Amino acid sequence: MAEYRITIVDDHPLFRGALNQALSASMDAAFQEAGSLDELNEQLGVSKDVDLVLLDLNMPGVQGLSGLMFLRAQYPEIPVVVCSANEDPGTIRRCIEFGASGYIPKSQPIEQIREAVAKVLGGEVWTPPDVNLSGELDEETSDMLGRLSSLTPQQVRVLMMLGEGLLNKQIAYKLSVSEATIKAHVSAILQKLGVDSRTQAVIAISRIDNRDWQSAAN
Fold first, then answer.
1. Residue 23, Cα to own-chain centre: how many angstroms?
2. In the predicted model, is pLDDT for residue 136 greater than 50?
3. How far is CA 4 from CA 19, 192, 196, in A?
4. Average pLDDT of the chain?
5. pTM higher than 0.85, yes or no?
């Protein structure tokens, strides 16, 4: 039996296969792949026996930090490492603030990726050593991060679908619940985020995804 169980989540099969092959050559691990957050959620619904999830940030139905937010809320016991083409220091810092156990840019050499995964499996948090993550949050961003962290897993999923422009009845169909349940979730989301409309809620999470962090030099 393999020592570790790792799931690679990315909508590009070639990248999933290449990462699987590269990591398999250096560690005793069993790998599973998922092409979307929904597919990963289905797999984890069957078995949560996973030691690490390697998650791309941007996939169909997932934008920015919403996928990470959902996983940390729904499966807090499973470490998540973001593996993304985005190398923006602000994005990296936000992911760590939201509970990621590491952030690996896809441009990293394979030996560096292997080292990063090994360190996270050993209980460490890994970020690129050449990226300066020092700095402080402005008060507004810090407040919104705290508010977003208070959302339940189902509320995060509803917020993600609001970001896709889906109507309540469409969200209800996808989540197999009543439209009244979705209305209740939307009301709770607006209250927790301190906003007055669905549009403002989507804008709030969009700002968290894109806002630059203030550097210590500022």
1. 21
2. yes
3. 15, 37, 45
4. 87
5. no
Which amino acid is located at 49 in the chain? D
**DSSP letters spanning 2-28:** -SEEEEEE-S-HHHHHHHHHHHHTTS-
Per-residue DSSP letter, 207: H
Query: Is residue 36 within 8 Å of 63, Cβ to Cβ?
Result: no
pLDDT band at 71 (very low <50, low <70, confident <90, very high): very high
CA distance linking residue 45 with residue 48, whole number of Å: 7
Position 149, amino acid:
S
* Residue 212 pLDDT level (bands cut at 50, 70, 90): very low
CA distance 53 to 42: 14
Distance CA 6, CA 114 (A): 13
